[in-house]
Amino acid sequence: MAMSRFLLALLWWALVAWAGNTAASGMARVDAEIAAHSGQTGAHILDTGESALRARAWLADHARHSIEVQYFIWSSDNVGILATEALLRAADRGVQVRVLVDDLLIDAPDRTLLALAKHPRVDIRIYNPKHKVGTPLHTRVLNVVTDFRGVNQRMHDKTFIVDGRVGITGGRNMADEYFDYDREYTFRDRDVLLLGAAMKTMRANFEAFWASPLAVPVEERYDGLGLMKKNVSVKDAEVQQVYRELHAYAARPENFAPEVRAAIAATPGQFAELARDMAWGEVSFIHDAPGKNGRRWSLGGGGRSTDALAALVAGARTSIIIQSPYLVMSDKAKALFRAAVARGVKVRILTNSLASTDNLQAFSGYRKQRRSLLKMGLDIYEYKPDPANRASLVSRVNAPATPPVFALHAKSMVVDGEIAYIGTFNFDPRSENLNTEVGAIIRHPGFARRLQAIMDADMRPENSWHAADEPDQYVPLTRRGQVRLWQLLPLKPLL
User: Fold this and answer.
1) Quick one: DSSP state of residue 492?
2) Is residue 222 a contact partner of residue 229, using CB atoms and an 8 Å limit?
3) Could you report the per-residue pLDDT of 211-238, keeping only the tens digit for each?
4) CATH value of 288-494 in 3.30.870.10, 3.40.50.620, 3.30.70.20, 3.20.20.70
5) What is the CB neighbour count within 10 angstroms for residue 64?
6) What value does the mean pLDDT take over residues 302-331?
7) Cα-flanking dihedrals φ and ψ of residue 419, to 5°?
8) How far is it between the farthest Cα atoms of the chain?
9) Burial class of 37 by CB neighbour count within 10 A (0 to 12, 13 to 18, 19+)
10) What DSSP letter does each residue of 133-189 carry, written as one string?
């Protein structure tokens, strides 16, 4: 793990060092591309962790005015620390940085959060803080008892916006496993890079969440005057020490491996390649309202993103292909897909197998209805933990001797080979009714065909099992027993 930290730190540091040398020409290229396609949006698939990491590093160092980021998970691991340092460095050179993170799975020391928030050009807010940030254990227990829906309503949005003109959205959170740098368990994930017209909606959505009463400034979460919040503070000397440690971590020169040098040498032409492959056309950025819906006492209610994706399914004429790490269909979703099959639409879905899933609870919900979904006429595949295409998707720079378990985390859909969706929406009741979600609907046949080819490859026999072949047989009896126990519990609305 120490070697991994050094390699990733050096890769990130060298990438942004190169980016700094070409900053002026870089954003000028972005401006020129947008001007040449007035009123349109450019979209480019970021299908590997390495490409997604490089894109974020490039954008962070090229930002001229603002960086706005919104994430469900932000971890204090290699990627999380280095991403934090990149934002801090951008703020140091005058860029206004705003960070909005969901409270449930944020992993950051209290004093580090406060120190970062004290930077004059860094603002950090926590969405729906009922679990972690500034919340002592007794308050968390009280929140669960008095506001069960509220503690389960999370912000699952993932957006990265630079200067209001360029953005990234998709499945990846800020943690090692989403960028191929976890040595035991990593995700097959997907983002989309966007330029142009759709950025107006993406940024407006960020502003709506930022202004919501559910988004609370970090400083307000630490108040020693009451029993409901933690008593935490940092002095100016501690603040500067946090900054020095972050910068030192990112610039550490040890273990500069030849593989890292090779990856850096291949970086300078990346933006030109992105520009050549960009699909320009009509793109809709879909999103939910803060809080998802008006329900307060029940776990249903739907949302804007649910309605937008349901409309795509309802309008399908010939085919629907879906990737979702979790597949738990509500009664409404079942009716929607049953109707699609009845009118002759071929529906293929790839989800995780019991051998690859990171969420036994969600898999238990899928396992309960797997046979009925197959009987409906859905063609379902389950991702292998060691697919043949893992070698081509996982970064070779950081490849361990023993490959990690590879699990599906991409959330994508292609309808009729013409319309594509890439975003954060899992096909389960939680995304349907509780979590706020975002994504891009790209109406561009070329882009849709490219995405469908990628998804078709993931479903090939060397990469996935067919659900009808009972893939559970490939996991130990103990794991099968665990998922059967979860099946006994009435968890479906929370899955």
Assistant:
1) G
2) yes
3) 999 999 999 998 766 666 778 888 999 9
4) 3.30.870.10
5) 15
6) 98
7) -120, 130
8) 67
9) middle
10) TT--HHHHHHHHHH-HHHHH--B---EEEETTTEEEEES--BSGGGTT--SSEEEE-
Separation between Cα atoms, residue 408 and residue 413, nearest integer Å: 14
Give 263's contacts (C-beta < 8 A, 6+ positions apart).
11, 50, 397
* Structure tokens given for 48: 């590997």
Domain ranges of the chain: 2-277, 288-494
Average pLDDT over residues 262-280: 63
pLDDT at residue 247 above 60? yes
Question: What region does 196 belong to: left with phi over 0, alpha with psi -120 to 50, or beta?
Answer: left
SS (H, E, C) 268-283: CCHHHHHHHHCEEEEE
Question: Whole-angstrom Cα distance, residue 495 to residue 444?
Answer: 32
> How many whole angstroms separate alpha carbon 333 and alpha carbon 314?
10
Architecture per CATH, domain 2-277, reads as 2-Layer Sandwich (3.30)
Q: Is the fold of 2-277 the same as that of 288-494?
A: yes
Would you list the DSSP string of 239-304?
HHHHHHHHHHHHH--S---HHHHHHHHT-TTHHHHHHHHPEEEEEEEEEPBTTBSS-SSSS----H
Is 401 a residue whose pLDDT tops 50? yes
